[in-house]
Design brief:
Elements (H helix, E strand, L loop, with lengths): L2 E6 L19 H8 L5 E7 L20 E4 L2 E4 L25 E5 L22 H7 L4 E7 L1 H14 L3 E10 L6 H11 L3 E3 L2
Parallel strand pairs: 1-2, 1-6, 2-5, 6-7, 7-8
Antiparallel strand pairs: 3-4
């Protein structure tokens, strides 16, 4: 196996009606489902926070969602409570095909550290185990899709590139939060690292 599809956080809370809804987030579902058969391996990630996670604004007195605070590992955007373990919002979108996924990586489970990337927590050093798994499967190229382009897709793509994979992000199967210009910044950062940005 050489080419893996990484399906990032296509969960109810990131889709319309969810706690941290990405505009048109549900529109990626049929696009991703149609892509799956073209890849040697499919891996899905799932944001999976314990209640009261330190990245939630509700865990910080006087703070509101989208404020930025300093954590031991650097800047942290505070989010509405989302993708809490066992909640309906944490489940995959009901129309997403999950049977083809050889592995589901749950991230953000450490209450003290957020985790955007499929490969590392936000301290940039604690691995999720995905890299080791892909290495055992002989994967050298990944295509990254899902939610949201400017956060978890972006961090996953950048880490994959830094780890030596050939990386492509298919923007037709992604949607962005775009918080204060974060989408363009993410696209620029990914391109600078050699990530191929395609649209369909």
């Amino acid at each position: 196996m050489t080419h893996a599809l990484l399906v990032i956080d296509v969960q109810n809370d990131f889709c319309p009606g969810g706690a941290l809804a990405v505009a048109d987030g549900d529109q990626v579902v049929p696009v991703i489902n149609a892509m799956m058969d073209r890849f040697d391996l499919v891996v899905a990630t799932q944001d999976w926070h314990p209640a009261g996670h330190s990245s939630f604004a509700s865990a910080h007195d006087g703070r509101a969602p989208f404020d930025v605070v300093q954590m031991p590992y650097g800047d942290q955007v505070l989010w509405p409570d989302h993708c809490v373990q066992g909640s309906a919002g944490g489940q995959f979108h009901p129309n997403l095909k999950t049977d083809p996924a050889a592995l589901i990586v749950r991230k953000g489970m450490n209450p003290a550290i957020d985790s955007y990337s499929a490969f590392f927590e936000n301290d940039r050093t604690t691995p999720t185990g995905l890299h080791g798994y892909l290495q055992t499967q002989g994967v050298d190229q990944v295509t990254v899709v899902g939610l949201a382009t400017d956060y978890c897709v972006n961090y996953s793509a950048q880490d994959a590139a830094a780890l030596g994979y050939r990386v492509r992000v298919d923007l037709s199967a992604c949607r962005a939060i775009d918080l204060n210009g974060s989408l363009q910044a993410a696209l620029d950062d990914m391109a600078r690292l050699g990530v191929e940005l395609v649209n369909g």
